[in-house]
Amino acid sequence: MLTMRLEGHRTAVLGAGGAIGRACVRQLAELGGEVAALDRDKTFAEGALDGVAGTHRAYEADVADPGAVSATVEAVWADGPVDGVIYAPGIAITSDVADMAWPDYRRLMAVNLDGAFHAAQAFVKPMIAAKRPGAFVFLSSMAGLRGEAGASAYCASKFGLIGLTQSFAAELTPHHIRVNAVCPGNVDSPLLRQVSEDIAAYRGGDADDVHAEAAKIGAARRLVTADEVASVCVWLVSPAASAVTGTALPVDVGALVG
Ligand SMILES: NC(=O)c1ccc[n+]([C@@H]2O[C@H](COP(=O)([O-])OP(=O)(O)OC[C@H]3O[C@@H](n4cnc5c(N)ncnc54)[C@H](O)[C@@H]3O)[C@@H](O)[C@H]2O)c1
For 152-163, how does the pLDDT look when each residue is reduced to its tens digit (9 = 90+)? Predict the structure, then answer.
């Protein structure tokens, strides 16, 4: 757990209702920060704020819809300035390139990559206008650093996020706004359960076996927790990481080297 404090610091967490988003919301609040929780359904964002001490607000935005993102970001800024943005929405679809249905490909890209671009654009304009230092963190993946059979669209979206991160970071350095990507390994989460079921259906086999296999990759041969990912995201979005920008940081218990 980080020992820094975040009083006076406000972070927008997109995909706040998810496993990693919720952990980010909780840790930011525990450090004294204020959170704007966003999700595609407002009740998901409100759920993330349940029992969380402090003054936080929930908002609804489908990140695949640029108009909805712009309107919600305007509402978030009307409630106060934003210092940090954590982008955690994401969906996974398992398919070979040869068999991927175009609407599925577009749906995945719309959330994982287009949405990140929409959010980047909508949040950065008021940040620059306000002349405030700030930080963006995009949830990429180990799948953004290494390809994998059956994960072409997911990998393309997550590699794409790292390209966006590097370019956006280079553009924003003069404005004292930092941009980083975090690349989690397999996280103990409902999303990993769903992916295990999809992979079992794709390869043939048992979902529990696939999940158990996912838990053994990497030098540490265990899953990553949502809290372990969140603590890196929270650090990167905080002023404590003031010299860190343009990076893609694996949080994978050594999956890439194990
Ligand atoms: N769970 C893992 O093993 C893992 C590993 C590596 C990377 N990641 C990435 O980390 C991020 C968070 O993962 P998670 O496990 O918390 O996922 P999750 O499925 O628990 O949460 C995703 C959140 O995004 C929201 N969302 C989905 N579509 C949206 C849309 N159109 N507009 C707004 N919000 C939308 C969902 O409602 C949900 O609250 C994702 O980008 C995922 O790809 C996860």
Answer: 999 999 999 999
- Is ligand 1 within 6 A of the CB of residue 80? no
Ligand 1 site, residue 17, Cβ cutoff 6 A: yes
Q: What are the contacts of 90-93 at 24+ separation with CB within 8 A?
A: 90/15, 90/18, 90/139, 90/141, 90/157, 90/191, 92/151, 92/154, 92/191, 92/194, 92/195, 92/198, 93/153, 93/154, 93/198
- For residues 214-225, one letter each, b for 16 or more C-beta atoms within 10 angstroms of the residue's C-beta and e for the rest, the string is bbebbeeeebbb
Quick one: which atom of ligand 1 is closest to the CA of 112?
Answer: 41
Does the beta carbon of 144 lie inside 6 Å of ligand 1?
no
Q: How far is the CA of 112 from the centre of ligand 1 (A)?
A: 9
Count of H-run helices and E-run strands, the chain:
9, 7
Say if CB 181 and CB 161 are below 8 A apart: yes
- CB neighbours of residue 98 within 10 Å: 6
pTM for this predicted structure: 0.98
Q: What's the 139 CA to ligand 1 centre distance in angstroms?
A: 8
| pLDDT(1) > 60 | no
Looking at every residue in the chain, the average pLDDT score rounds to 96
Q: Are strands 34-39 and 57-60 parallel, antiparallel or unpaired?
A: parallel
Question: 10-185+224-250, what's its fold?
Answer: Rossmann fold (3.40.50)
